[in-house]
Structures are given as structure tokens and as C-alpha cells.
Amino acid sequence: CASVLQISSRGVTTRRNTMAATLAPGAARAAPSARPTSARALKPRASSSGNAHARLGRVDVRARATSTIDASTDASVTAAKRALHDAVEGTYRGAGASASERAAVEEAQVALETLDVAGAADIDLELLSGKWRLVYTTAADVLSVLRVQRDLGPLSPVEVGDIFQSFTADGRVENEIRLSVPFLLAPATTGTAGGVALKVDADYAKCGARTLSLTFQEARVTEVRISDLAEALIAPALLPRGSINHQILLAIKELELRFPLRGAVTAMGGPANGEPARGDDDGGGGSRARSGGAAVGAYLLSYLDETTLIGRASGSGGTFVFERASGRPQRS
Predict the structure, then answer these.
(1) pTM exceeds 0.85 for this model
(2) What is the C-alpha to C-alpha distance for residues 292 and 215, in angstroms, rounded to an integer?
């Protein structure tokens, strides 16, 4: 009986295995009929907040890159201005510069001009407005005056103080040089308003993005400051001062002589009255020159920022390097 049961059990097991093998191919064939799941469907969708964060991240990266570039440019400009300042130092505003020193100044000047953020854009007349003090020049007419004092020293009959160039946004420019005569006028040292002021008034008009045409109008002798010695001779302190003494002193202090420059410039080969200057059509900036003046050429402003101005006069007029003396614009 036990043998019969074992044989029966083996038969049942064999039939079950046969049925499983028979059903398996059907199951295998049924599996491919299941609809495949799309890869796109399986990919999680980015949330709107995630996209916003990504965009903000990209903006932040761009902002940091721009800030880095600006900081690098500012550092380059600062270094270039320091190099130019070091190059002009000790040259007596150009009058005592040797050939190698002039070459060093020119190299530093060009290096700074290439960093002008305005580039070829129109000159900012509001930024130009103000009073600028000359620190270096190659202009022969200015150097001839400076060299008199440098060469003669204490024996020089004239003392040269500050040299300024002042602009207004409405097309006016004033060149000023302060001079003194020893013993007669108060000292005209740099940074003081002693001596006497020689001023040349001019108009300017834009004749290019960075170029101005200049028209001289008149020269003035003004702001006379006499020395203590001269004042003591006119009105001695130990003697009573009468009305005549006071009138003389007041007349000297208020003295102002004016000389129209049209005839003088024409005699030196400049254009005659009525000959139009380049840029008299206003060129989009500045002002139309007043009648009666004399055009004297173009003036390229090759560099301008809040503290430094570099100008190049046409022809052999030379170059001018200025630092702002007053009238610095207020930036918001």
C-alpha cells in the first residue's frame, strides 16, 4: 500500500508540473501585451518654484560676474591714474620734464585713456562742468611761462601759481593763470589766490562725440592782490589813512582790464571775425559761439571722470592733464 501511494503521489506531482509548464508560455505571451510605461511619464516634473529658483540662481551668477568685472575695471583705472600721477610728479607741470620723463607720462596717459568707460560715447557736459587744475602739459605757450621761473629761480621776475580751466554745461570755458611779481604782488603759490589772475574767456561747441571747437572772446586782468610791502607804501600803518589812500587800495583790488582777442588772434594767423568755427552749429551740445570771437581749433577730451580730465589740442597745441579743483558733480 505504501508503494502504491508513493507512485500515485509522484503521478500527481508530474501532472501539476506539466500543467504549470503548459500555462507558462501563455503567461509569457501575455506579459508583452502590457502597455509600456513612457520614460517621459516616469520623469518627475519640475515644480514652478524650482524653475524660479534656477532662474534666480542664473541672475545671481550674472550679477556676481558683472560686479567682478566692474570691480576689476575700477581697480585698473585707479592703478592707471596712480601711475600717471607718479609719472608727472617732479616734472614742474611739464616744464622740467626730460625726454624719458615725457615718454613715461605719455605712456601712462595713453594707458589711462584706453580705460575710459565712456569710450566713443558723447562727452558728459555735466561731468565736465567745474574747475580743473593743470598738473601737466606739453603746450609750448604754457611751458614758456613756467620755464621762466624754473630757470631763473629766485631771480625770476614772475612767479607762476595755479593754472585752471573751467567749464560750464552751457558752452563757456575759462582759462586762468595766476601770476605774481615779487615785492609788488602777493605770492602766487600753488593753492593760493595771490598775485593777479589772467583769464581768457571762450565759447565751446561740440564738433564730435568727444571733441570741442573753441572760440576765444577776450582776455582779462583781474583779482589783483598786492603784497603787504606795497600796501604799506601806499598806506603806511604808522600814518593816518586818508580817503585818498583808501580809494587807491580799493581801485587796485577792483581793477579789471579787458582785451578783446579777435584782433590779436587774427594777427597771429588765426581765423578772422565771422569765419565759422567747427561745431558752431551746436553739434548737439555746448552753445553757439558769441559774435566777435575767433576760432582757435579743436580740443579732444580723451579722458574724463569725476577727478581727472585729459585734453589734446589740435595741431601742435599739446596735451593737458587736469585734476578737479572744485565743482565735483553730485552722483546719486
Answers:
(1) no
(2) 9
Look at 62-71, 142-151, 248-257 and tell me which has the smallest mean pLDDT: 62-71
Amino acid residing at 80: A
Residues 128, 301: contact at Cβ < 8 Å? Answer: yes
Query: Rg of the chain's alpha carbons, rounded to an integer?
Result: 42
Q: How far apart are CA 323 and CA 82, in angstroms?
A: 12
Angle value at C-alpha 253, between 247 and 258, nearest 5 degrees: 115
Residue 272 C-alpha from the chain's centroid: 34
Residue pLDDT, tens place only, 185-242? 999 888 888 899 999 999 999 998 899 999 999 999 999 999 999 988 888 876 666 7
In angstroms, the CA 165 to CA 134 distance is 8
Residue 163's Cβ-count burial label (10 Å; 0-12, 13-18, 19+) is: buried
Residue 272: predicted pLDDT: 45
- Residue 179's H or E segment, with its range, is strand 172-180
Strands 294-304 and 257-260: unpaired
